[in-house]
Every structure is written in structure tokens, then in C-alpha cells.
Amino acid sequence: MYEILHxxxxxxxxxxxxxxxxxxIFKFTKSKNHNIGIVYIDKIVNSNSDLIIRDKKKIKxxxxxxxxxxxxxxxxxxxxxxxxxxxxxxxxxxxxxxxxTIFHIHSxxxxxxxxxxxxxxxxxxxxxxxxxxxxxxxxxxKVNSKQFYNMLNLEKNIYTKVDAVIAVDKNLFEHCxxxxxxxxxxxxxNFVDNLKFxxxxxxxxxxxxxxxxxxxxxxxxxxxxxxxxxxxxxLAKAITLLSDEIIKNSVFFIVGDGSERTKIEKILSNTxxxxxxxxxxxHEGIVTYYQLSDVFIIPSINTEGVEEATSISTLEAMACGNxxxxxxxxxxxxxxxxxxxxxxxxxxxxxxxKEKIEYVYNxxxxxxxxxxEARNTIExxxxxxxxxxxxxxxxxxxxxx
Length: 401
Prior knowledge:
By secondary structure, the protein is α/β, with parallel strands linked by helices. Helix content is about 45%, strand content about 15%.
């Protein structure tokens, strides 16, 4: 029987913060001999084996072929398709779920299908973002429309109905409390597997840079989905403003894909900088890029009230000893103490970002303390062990109540 069952409103192959969060906590909790599972749209994973409910290659192929058609569907129909797939997978393992199984869900949309099929189980929600305002930011709904208020009411109701809410930053905590003052909400920032994401020796770094053909270069990295709120277009503009010396002696890796890619490529066509748009990279392979890199840039911006939460990619970069340059918004302000464990810049300001890149380039050899403080911050506040203890205590508390 499952002790904990994570339910994710996404396919297993989707690359992003939520899937990274679930996969890392699954592996760590499993190592502590808990019987734990994950239900995705396309598959179920448990502590003993992968139960492939649908063929992963087939799902990916269908996803690629029909994505353009799927994107044209009304939001309600898209949500219905996803939820029905998840519900079918849940029912396939119903015999492995008893009244003591705790459901840990990662979207407000999942509450109703859990409660419909499992009347008495405890449900915990991790609040990774702003459901209503993210749809507003993506252009799916209009502000003050009927759909806008229906979504806010859904959030309000679910935050109260679940047994506990975990908000991954202060802004999300306040958002939840504002909508649902009686919600049982806890503020706990995200975590990183600091045993996996760690700095490498100077000699190993030299070898890695040779392997990637970037020896003697300062390597800048950003790992973001190429969407408006992630601000990669601001980084692209900043790169076009850099001096010839920095352009000559630096390389920029941009990991991720999305609707802004064409726009970003057009901006970058105005520079001779060495820029590698790598597309999406599976999470298990991303650690190499952090260890290869010297500087990590996260240029997120506020769109329709949606701000970056406690960014998992930033935690991973800090754990690997990268110097982080981040926008001064949302959960990034929790992670970064300016000039101590990284640098903060004004959001949506390409000139200020360019100036900070120049500063780091010109002073890199004198910024060893920044890298050490970044790693120390992770070990003290954001380690996976620390998060596991919090989560296990919360599960036990919810079970008793």
C-alpha cells in the first residue's frame, strides 16, 4: 500500500520545476524506505518499479503532432482531457491505496478527482504558482471576466478544503491567506539535492570545459522555459550591449524552449556573441551544465502579477557554486542576498543586467566568497534533507488530525 502518492498535472517527460521537485523528493523519500508513488498523465511510478501505463514514445509523438491542435482547444476541454487521463491512472492502482494513503497534489485542479474517488484520504497541496494569474499571464483568460472570478473562487475553495497547503515562497503564502484566511498553510521554500548538485574541482572543471570546447572562456548559463515571464528576452538584449572583449572571452548557454524562442533568436541575431540555444535538456543531465558554468543568470519578470517563486534552477546553480545574477522579484529575493551570495538586478532592465554581467566578468577572480556563500546558503537552508524532515513531520501531523 502507498504511504504517499504524489499526483502531478503534467506528463512525466515535461521539463520544469514541478516535475523536478516531485522526482527529487520521490527519490530521496524512497531512499528512506517509504512506499511512495507518482501519478502523471502518462504513467505511474512506484517505489519498486516503473509501471508504464501508456507507451512513453507514443505519448511524446502524439504530443508533438497534436500540440498545435491541442493548444487551440478551449481551456476547459484541455483541462478535462488531462484530468480524465490522471483519473484513469489512479483507478488502475486503486487496490494499492487505502484510507491511510496521503495524496500530495501539485495543482488545485486535482483535488476534485481525488475526493470523488477517495472520500476519506488526507490531501496536501504544494502551491508552486498562481493558478488564476498564470492563466491571465498566458492570455487564456481576461481580467475581471467571469472565468477569472470562477478560477479565483476555485483556488479559494481548494485552499480551505485540503488538509494542508505548502507555499514555496512568502508571496504565495500571502496569496493563499488572502484568498482563504482559514487555510492551513505553511511557507516552505523549495529544496535542492545538494549531494548531487555540488561544485567540482578546478581540474575537473578545466577538463569539462575542454570537452565542451569552451576552455579559457567565462561560461554564462540560464535554464528557463522561453516564455515571457522568464525574461530570457531581457538577457538577450543585455548580451547585445556587451563589449567586444566580453563577447570574445565568454560563452552563453541557454537551456530551454518555448513560445519566445523566435523572438529571442531575432534579438540575438544582432550580436557576434558565442550563444548556444540548447533547447530542453532532461533534468538528470542538467547538473553537467551547472558544473561547467561560472555564472548563472535568471532574468525573470513580473507579468500580470505572476512572479518567480523559489526557483529550483537557481537553487541548483547556487549548490554548484555558480555566481548568480537574478531579478529582484518574488522568491529570488529570499534566495539571494545582494553582494553576499549572489547579485540582484532590477527586473526588465537590460542595461542594468548588462552592467552586472560586466562587473562579474571584470571581477570574477575576486568573487570566490560569493560562490562559497551560495553553497553555504544551500547547505544551511535549502538542502533536501532539511526539506524531507519538514515534509515527513507534516505528513505525520496530517495523519493524526
